[in-house]
Amino acid sequence: MSALTDAPASAMAAARPPSPGRRRRRRPRPLFLLLLLLGPAALLIVVFIVAPAFYGMYLSFTNTQLTGFAARDPKFVGFDNYAYLLTNSGFLSSLGHTGEFVLYSAIIGQTVLGMLAAILLSRPWMRGKGIFGAAVLMPMIVPEVVASLTWASVLSNNSSGTLNQLTGLFGAPPTDWLQVVPMASVITVNIWRGIAFAMIMFQAALEDVPVELIEAARIDGARALQVFRHVTLPLIRGPVFLYLLLTTISTVGAFGLVYFLTQGGPGGQTRITAIYIYERALQFSQVGIGSAASMILLVIVLVLGFVYVRLAKVEV
Fold first, then answer.
1. What is the pLDDT of residue 110?
2. Count of domains forming the chain
3. Distance from C-alpha of 262 to C-alpha of 264, rounded to nearest angstrom
4. Is the peptide bond preceding residue 210 cis, with omega within 30 degrees of 0?
5. What are 263-280's pLDDT values in tens digits?
6. Which residues contact 313 (CB under 8 A, 6 or more apart)?
7. Are residues 205 and 280 both part of a single domain?
8. Is 312 in contact with 238 (CB distance < 8 Å)?
9. I need a surface site. Which of 54, 126, 164, 170 has the fewest CB within 10 A?
10. Which domain covers residue 7, as residue numbers?
11. Residues in CB range of 114: below 8 A, 6 or more apart
């Protein structure tokens, strides 16, 4: 009889779940797991982004150069480099050219055309979506050097240039486009390169818009433009401002495309801040001034990023 009474007790003990203390000891430690997963990425970010940024900040307060006495024994000069840049017409002009380049090529050109491409791909009546999407994506996969050389041939000043051949069909003489309209030329090339990324982000955002809301707006008599302005655009506000943040950062730091096409010329008309920093730091060996210019550009980008985040109403 005792064996029978002991059997259910032992079965209940076996079926009883382990105590919370035992279960807690078996789980891996959250801090260790977090360090294991994020540690390598965080280390790379610190080594290749954070540390160079702080070192560049330190260099901006010195008169470090690549040649001369300052290269052997750099001195701490405080805010002298910043005072020089903020009163230097060449640097202020480069900031203006950068603002023009970012505004027309990234904020207006790529955003508007990328949105139009995404809307076309989202329409059911659109035919040849594969060919259209591949044509838009092609510039994104072309290396920057190849794209620059290709456009240099298109905008060539002789009669064999592609654009001059097209305008020649209407009787126009050959034009040196990179000399006559240099900023418009590099803006056009940068728009051509950036439409694909805008189209991908906007198309993904448009797919998340509920179809029921669009159909309800159309039943109420709203036109296509009104539906997009009052229904679709507010719903994709976050992705739009996220794209504006990303494209502004990448366009502010653009260097190769503009340098390969114009090298900042003619007469400094396309000398954006990235080219100014390159010339000061490497061509003129003034690393301290180049670092200070980089810090000023970094502050401007951070301010723009904060504005974008606030406009998108994203919690950070």
1. 93
2. 2
3. 5
4. no
5. 998 889 999 999 999 999
6. 237, 238
7. yes
8. yes
9. 170
10. 2-60
11. 194, 195, 196, 197, 198, 199, 201, 202, 243
